[in-house]
Design goal:
This protein is mainly α. It has 2 domains: about 10-200, Growth Hormone, Chain: A (Up-down Bundle), CATH 1.20.1250.20; about 225-415, MFS general substrate transporter like domains (Growth Hormone, Chain: A), CATH 1.20.1250. The chain has 16 helices and 2 strands. The protein has helices at about 5, 10-40, 45-75, 80-100, 100-110, 115-145, 150-175, 175-195, 225-255, 265-300, 305-325, 330-345, 350-355, 365-390, 395-415, 425; strands spanning about 205-210, 215. The chain has a two-stranded antiparallel ribbon. Helix 2 (about 10-40) packs parallel to helix 7 (about 150-175), helix 2 packs antiparallel against helix 8 and helix 10 packs across helix 12. The chain is globular.
Length: about 425
């Protein structure tokens, strides 16, 4: 084991964050280029692009749970999570490179219907991301003590991953999506492969002696607490995903005054796209700055659950603000920045909170279940809420749904109890990992 891992230095936390960063970068590439390349290079229509995108959440439902369960039980190539990070990272990098060459792959395979190959590549990419995402998050819980050390692991994960996510969007916007694809494939491969050789996993889980003299895992699963966390987190994602998917309709009507987005000019469509890009850049910039530098120290003082509640409540207020005063570009940008406070917490703190409610020998499985609280709301937005939103005359309904969802989420987080401070947390003093 490296000395930096023994001492839990900042350099170790940075190293520990890289595999999750690699998968996050792969996901950013998928979001940035998949629809674009399918529609512009391969001429798929909106319906066909939607079919390809549907493969992602469906793959996520099964991929993370199954891989998480398997990774809890196996040990090869010197690790429990390492093999899946290596395999998933390699496949993800390969599928990213394959995106611009779907037509050539179709010819090579002798398949005349290009959408079939597009779905094959999309599913392979998404499964690869899901294969790796679970182990990259689980390994943080595996190699860090409970308490502030683990919170630091997940907040650093989001700060570093979020920075590279913003970098991906900027790289594509400034230098083009093809450079993003090929540069990104290299980054995904390196970040997935190199760190695994410097992070030492323990083959045996921590055990304690029970009163009857038998050994057992140091702590057991608190199912009631986990269900509360899953439900609260699901409402967060219901609101966030509604914003992600339908913000273009809100901007088109409230800022530009269009009632029919299908009839507007390409110039106006580009203007809407630019506002969306800047809005999400602001959201994600706040989202990567706060976790390690603000949320982790605050969580150490007042607790993780209370910190998360305050962030989610703030995000709900930002959504309600957009409903009432989000009809100017400036107001939208300011309120998206405020929403970034909740986004910063959403993609960092729940992992630390959840990881201390689940038995350590089943961490991969419960991380997979945790992913359902993201995927199921995504499917509800696409398959159910999309009907109501598309038929609503007033597109305020988009952020009303988001505001209601985040308000409910904040209230539900009040029913989650933080784990008590234990000796492992007391041993990790503020600044102990500063070398």
């Amino acid at each position: 084991m490296l000395d930096i891992q023994k001492r839990l230095t900042n350099s170790f936390y940075a190293l520990l964050a890289l595999p999750a960063t690699g998968m996050g970068f792969a996901l950013s590439i998928q979001i940035a280029v998949l629809s674009w390349i399918l529609s512009t290079k391969f001429n798929l229509d909106i319906h066909e692009v939607g079919i390809v995108w549907a493969a992602g959440p469906l793959a996520g439902i099964f991929g993370q749970v199954i891989i998480g369960l398997i990774s809890d039980k196996v040990w090869f190539w010197g690790g429990r999570r390492r093999p899946f990070i290596l395999i998933g990272g390699t496949i993800a990098a390969t599928m990213i490179v394959a995106l611009p060459h779907i037509d050539k792959i179709a010819v090579t395979l002798g398949i005349s219907n290009i959408i079939i190959v597009a779905i094959m590549v999309a599913i392979s990419l998404d499964l690869a991301i899901n294969i790796s995402f679970n182990p990259t998050r689980s390994i943080i819980a595996d190699v860090t003590p409970e308490g502030s050390a683990r919170t630091k692991g997940y907040t650093w994960m989001q700060t570093i991953s979020g920075f590279f996510g913003v970098f991906a969007y900027v790289l594509g916007a400034v230098f083009g999506n093809y450079l993003l694809i090929y540069t990104g494939a290299v980054i995904v491969f390196i970040f997935s492969i190199i760190p695994t050789f410097f992070i030492k996993e323990s083959k045996e889980f921590e055990v304690v002696k029970a009163e009857d003299g038998k050994e057992k895992i140091a702590y057991k699963t608190d199912w009631i607490a986990l269900i509360k966390i899953y439900v609260a987190h699901a409402f967060t994602w219901l609101g966030v995903q509604t914003m992600f998917v339908f913000i273009f309709a809100y901007i088109g009507q409230k800022i530009f005054g269009f009632t029919d987005l299908n009839s507007i000019s390409q110039t106006d469509k580009d203007s809407i796209g630019q506002i969306i890009a800047i809005s999400f850049a602001i959201l994600n910039t706040v989202g990567f700055i706060l976790p390690a530098f603000v949320l982790e120290p605050l969580a150490r003082k007042i607790g993780r659950v209370k910190t998360h509640f305050l962030c989610i409540a703030t995000m709900s207020l930002s959504y309600w603000g957009i409903v009432y005063v989000g009809d100017t570009v400036t107001n939208l940008y300011v309120l998206m920045g405020i929403a970034g406070i909740g986004w910063a917490a959403t993609v960092s703190l729940p992992f630390a909170i959840m990881s201390e409610k689940a038995a350590k020998d089943k961490m991969g499985f419960f991380m997979g279940i945790f992913n359902l609280s993201v995927v199921i709301p995504q499917l509800i937005v696409s398959l159910v809420l999309s009907y109501f939103i598309s038929n609503a005359v007033n597109k305020d309904i988009i952020f009303i749904i988001s505001g209601v969802s985040l308000t409910l989420s904040a209230l539900l987080w009040l029913f989650v109890k933080d784990s008590p401070v234990n000796q492992s947390e007391k041993d990790v003093l503020p600044g102990s990992g500063s070398h």
